Amino acid sequence: MSTLLYALGRWSYRHPWRVLVGWLLLLGVALGLAAPNLTGTDNSFSIPGTEAQEGIELLARSFPQASGTSAQLVIVAADGDTVDVDPYASAIGETVSHLEDLDGVIAVTDPFNEMVTGLVSDDESAAIIRLQFDGQATDVSDETLTELEGVATDLHESLPGGSQVAMGGDLFSTSVPALSLIEAVGVLIALFVLIVTFRSFAVAWFPLVSALIGVGLAIALIFVATVFVSVSSTTPMLAIMLGLAVGIDYALFIVARHQDQVRDGVAPEESAARATGTAGSAVVFAGVTVLIALVGLSFAGIPFLTTMGIAAAVAVAIAVVVAITLTPALLGFSKGRVVGWGYGKKRRGVPLAARRASAEDTDASSVDERAGEPATTPTGHTAKKPNRWVMLVTKHPWVTSIAVVLTLGIMAIPAASLTLALPNAGVQPESSQARQAYDLTAEHFGPGANGPLIMTGTIVTSTDPLGLMADLADEIEQVPGVKQIALSTPNETADTGLIQIVPETGPDDPATAELVRALRDLAPQLEDEYGIDLKVTGFTAVGIDISDRLGAALVPFGVFVVGLSLVLLMIVFRSVWVPIKAALGYLLSVAASFGVVAAVFEWGWLADVLHVTRTGPVISFMPIILMGVLFGLAMDYQVFLVSRMREDYVHARRAAAGHPTRSDRDIAVGAVRSGFTASARVVSAAAIIMFAVFAAFVPEGDASIKPIALGLAVGIAVDAFLVRMTLVPAVMALLGDKAWWMPRWLERILPHFDIEGEAVERELALADWPEPDTTVAVVGEKVAVRADGGRAAGEVVLFEDAAFRVERGGTLIATGDPRAARAFALAVAGRLPTSDGRLRVAGHLLPERGAWVRAHVGVALLGEAEDRVQALRRALAGRATLVVIDGVDTLDAAERDQAAALLRDAADVLRERAGDLDAPTATLTLVVTARSESAALALLADAHRPDVTAIALQAGTLQTATTAEVTA
User: Where is the segment annotated Disordered (predicted)?
Assistant: First the structure.
């Protein structure tokens, strides 16, 4: 990964205009496709497999006039007046007639209809006109919405002064989030932090440009997707928040690494490539963790939440790709003008490569206990005075750890009172007409009138549908929490019954959820008595079902996220305790952020300051989204901070090998301090930027976004500054060198992920090996391959300490134990990673360039092939200039003749195709393995291969190498 990113970074640096114009063209095309669909999002929530959804589907089939979305017009008479007399009664009657003529309206309920109860308040000071639409809220046209507003305005103007009219209901229960100038403040704060961090106006713009292009492309693609799938209106805003935050941070990590390297004397082009290969690898890993967590939102089994997670994951994926391509391209525009203020040439010091070369001989991580600072860092960077904070934390690790855990525990206390619900008009700004209608309805009809419930079922077997519905209404009205039965009626064909229930409490009140459960518990009893299977449904019931489903999904999702973090961090850090510590720290951050959200939105703390218009339950999917997003971002800080500590620890142990007076614990603590000092600046800047971006969506944000934004802002601040930059170094100091312990069996089975670009560093260090501008085809030095022989056998050495060299057009024979020979062949062909040593094949270093070698080196495994000649033919078919043949001694005489002919023909084809006999493609290089050297020599003699180098392998050792001359 890191070597590919290294090459990508260099190419992008060299071709900045191509990269920039390419992204701008892609953005332009996406915006063009998205323009016709900017209103394509919707707020229709469905949850397959729940009782509420089944009830909606039943109504859609047999009671369509009650299955669609609804709205209500609330009329409140002036003080002292009543709505049952003129001019109110006549105006309401005319309005009902007008509403019945609107497109999409399939039913209008007159509040004065004798068949209906509950639409006129007890004191007759208010009335409700209820409307039923064909389809869901997204099916109601803009023209109909405009006409509805016009009808409400006309009615208000026709009534006496002091009266109130407001349009609300399920149709207007959710609002479409929109950006405001406050969100721009977050971007400006991010720009200021970038200027301070980089000490440069020019460089500070790079992360912003990268993030804005990525966000623009992601949002455009989301709106294009609305043509094919249902996307909630909250999704684009969530994608903007995440895209901006991670886009800025990912580019920041790359630019910061580049700037440090240029300040250290590395050429700008080389530095951009290295930064993309090293910091870019960490960016890719961090982005993948966020992607996995967001896609994991599908655990809840709720379609709109799954879509939201995928859309946000797309935004993050685009941010990663833009960061690793556009960022080095932007650096290509700046060339060497990135060092910032106060970093002239005279301060750049010794080139980085020179310092790295001498780092092995320096006790790099040693901390002078008297001065409290290292002379140089273990990786050879310029010495930095240790950060005072990390010195304080690591000197008092127990006090620090206890203080942080207690603080976060106290912050988490309000989380116990956190309740969840879908958003409704009650959380909209007081200036909105839907909020006014909600408040007027609650004031004059009770809070339950804003969220009526529906019970429906098939009554086709009843001989007295009207009597049945009346009896059911009487039974249900006795349930605690039911205020009244507004309607109980069969449909026109008398095969489906509908009961509309007005609760005593509001739609987002926990008591209403208890009522829904009580009604569902009553349903079996009613079925036994009346023979009708009733289902509880309606907008409020759907919201309760979604909240319950999300609440039930939190534990398995949390297990998934924590388990994922443990596995990923074990792979990255090759440690057991570091991942456990990181996962526990993540849980503390989540609990604290939940606590702050509950304190603001449930308890009302700072509600006025944050413009929270109404306290109460928060949006149902806030916890699961916060857990998913915060997981990915927390892993970002963990990776960028602790990976530097591990890098310093590994180099320091190697450097301190000849200093027995220094303990491993001292080395480990010194690495914590030096690693923290080297990465704290960038991590702090990244956290401040993310906090600013998320916090900017709180004051004026949509009611659905506010709690998510606040939770993420608090979670980022807590996780970055209290957990990662305080608790982590304290616990690492307590653990000492045990922090990097891992059982050998676990070490063997876990894959390796090059998170800090070690492959790039190795390639740079071996760039001139075995000699500058080498023409050798295959060369190895102290090469070894080991395998896991199982728990009983442990690690098996297939071969080790192998040294060999083959020029282009030559042949290498490896003989001996079949397992060792097969491992040797696969290693040279890039199919099996080496355990030790250096190996370069066709100019490409292994295992870093294994992908290229696998694509260009032919392999014929004759020992396991049914048709050995055909296997060799396939290996030569791609006209590869290097072919590895394993098990040539398995060929019989006839097969050997055919194989020799194939080898001669392949060599002739290469020479004819190349034309230039000195070109690398003019010769065929072979690596063959066999049990005995004689069998291989016989084949090579027939194939006219005169230049042969032979090595004899045995399991676990390598015998002396010999050279044989074979004549045709």
Answer: 354-383
